[in-house]
What does this fold into?
Amino acid sequence: QVQLVESGGGLVQPGGSLRLSCAASRNIFSIYTMGWYRQAPGKQRELVAATTAGGTTTYADSVKGRFTISRDNAKNTLYLQMNSLKPEDTAVYYCNAKNPILNTLWGQGTQVTVSS
It folds into this structure.
C-alpha cells in the first residue's frame, strides 16, 4: 500500500508563504492524478490544486495566481507553493492520489494557519 506523508504546514502571517510537501512511498506519479485538498472547520473538503500524470494542472479559483502545484518525479514528492496567504486559507491540507481504476489515497493532513 502506497503511503502519502505531508509536511510543511504551520503558522504564518497574512501575506506570507509556505511550501507543503507530500512524499509518496513509491513512484506513482505516472499513473495517478496528484492533488492537494483542504478542509476548514465546519466546511467540506475542497480541491485546491491538482496535476495529472501528463502534467495538466488545475486550480481552485480562490488560489489561482497565488498557489503553485509541482512535483519532483525523482524524489516521488509533490509540492504546493503557497504565496500571499490569507486568513481564509487556514485549513488542514491533504495530499491526494487518484486513479479511477486502482484507488484513491490520502495523506494524514497538515495544518496551515494564517493569522497575525
